[in-house]
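Technical note accompanying the year-one report. For the benefit of new consortium partners, we illustrate the data format agreed upon in the data management plan: each record pairs a sequence with a structure-token string. No post-processing was applied to the example shown here.
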Amino acid sequence: MASEMQRYDTNEDDEEMGMDVKEEDDEDDDDEEKNAAMHAMAGFDGVHGSSSSSRFQHHQQYQEQPTPGGSRRCRPVEEKERTKLRERQRRAITAKILAGLRRHGNYNLRVRADINDVIAALAREAGWVVLPDGTTVPSRSQPQGTGTAGGTSTTMVTSLSPHIPTQHTPPAALKSMTSGFQNTADQSACQMKSVFVPSSSPYDSSSTARSQTSAIVADGQVTQNDPFLVGCVDSIDKQVIDMHTKLQERDFAGTHYIPVYVMLPLGVINMKSELVDADGLVKQLRMLKSINVDGVMVDCWWGIVEANAPQEYNWNGYKRLFQVVREHKLKIKVMMSFHECGGNIGDDVCIPLPHWVSEIGRSNPDIYFTDRAGRRNPECLSWGIDKERVLRGRTAVEVYFDYMRSFRVGFDEFFEDGIISMVEVGLGPCGELRYPSNPVKHGWRYPGVGEFQCYDQYLLKSLNKAAEARGHSFWARAPDNAGSYNSRPQETGFFCDGGDYDGYYGRFFLKWYSQVLVDHADRVLSLAKLAFDGTCIAAKLSGIHWWYKTAGHAAELTAGFYNPSNRDGYVVIAAMLKKHGAALNFKCAEMSMLEQAVDFSEALGDPEGLAWQVLNAAWDVSLPVCSENALLCHDRGGYNCLLEKAKPFNDPDGKHIFAFTYLRLSPLLMDGQNYMEFERFVKRMHGEAVLDFQS
């Protein structure tokens, strides 16, 4: 640890920063506590014990200067107040910078990000590698060392150079999901889930396949559970050398053609059903067409089209939009959005449910999903009213069908011309098939397990009916020991290892809870198939990857996926989609694109393992699989990760995804190097040979 501390110079800038941090506590007026805090801060900034002591003494002298008479006087109160005011102003400026970077710069900064996070994000965008301990090196350089067998190579960088190949011997294509687990918790997480996992790809710097427990994130950031980082933390600060071998990019020339769609901005149609900034959109569509993008994806918001009264549909803005898209000879993938927009990560507009639905909700709030505390979630309608005539004489399913039928009739020419290639049907919050178990508006934060959402009167009535049918009427209740939104599995009696989730009552409840989800999708998709006969329909499934390496898979359970380690919960969903001839659109955060490495490690998440379980469940029943990126991506490393998922390396059956949707169209995507990288990504998705845009 001493060697790591020696890397930092004890200069005047450090001392100024120490004073600023010391003065940041507005409520602490006790000089002794401040001096103690400064003593700790000096040690954190990387100086030896002696220098830390001298720095502490320096600040004492600064605060209490001797008077000519030999006594000491305290710093004037006015000076302290001015310092506090300056600190408040600095924090206000920092907050505005963070807000601007999140909204306009597409930086994925955590809620409590500080100036270090901003500097790290800017450095990574400029091509630098920033390690968790703050070590910053050029992207073409890395600390010396290699990963251990079965672990993850730490030489993964954002820009993967194709110039110098690495020698590489792929292992067998089939392997168990339990390979590479570091502990018993990891191994128990995937018992009875042996699925196909692609063999080692050209992105691995060693000959072993990437471990399912690896945690490389975008821009070269490595998690603390990486074997190299744990074993060589003392040597990282001693030497940084140039990489002698650069990673070879996989050649996708001649591979399957995968159509690429680009998701249009959420607010492309305003609340008056008018097209926003048509001229700007035309310019962007021309640029997309010039690089052979296949089409765009559009959200058709229920809250806009049927806003004012039941069965009064206003499609004017969407008709104008579709005409513009058709003029550029692009396809359209349509999303039937029966949920509200706003309040979730990435939402930059607010589109509520129709006004007339909200009026019904004020008098009958049980039409919304409800948590244990009785809080209603107006993001979408509860599945308990699918067959209840509480929406002005119609059931929820009838409302959805009338909306879809109106769209099919109003846009018949676009269907007949083949402009509309696919219709994705919204089945829950964010348009995804899941319960709203992790609402940010109710205080949920990653990686909390979430809460069961079955406390409205209609779902409770369904639960009571199921319990009576089972012969145990006292089971007509939700678990009372499942914790709260931000609980960890081991903190609860229901989700902990050996907890109630695997008991008789737990299995009954989870089977009912997940069956409500499947039944809802079954009902809505059966009507969607009728409304859009002859057109491909799809359903979106989100990847709830945190706590995947635990036995209970708590976050998946509260979301409605009955997928503990001893049961495959996605096979039932795949079979239901197969029955309706629907495609599966799977969205899951890629492990190498995650930035919160420490949180990811602590949450025992495994997006890679979850992705392959879902994909294999779909492919086993010959289900078409679409995909989209869950996180913003503009760099080559992220694109390579998406390509690997789209076209698995060494798959014995040549499986690949059916279509890909990019999230999302923005000025940043159209800018300079980002645009060139995206063009390169599209060509590789199409199976074309590409030129290397990066030197």
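Partners are asked to follow this layout when depositing records. The CA atoms of residues 98 and 118 lie 7 Å apart.
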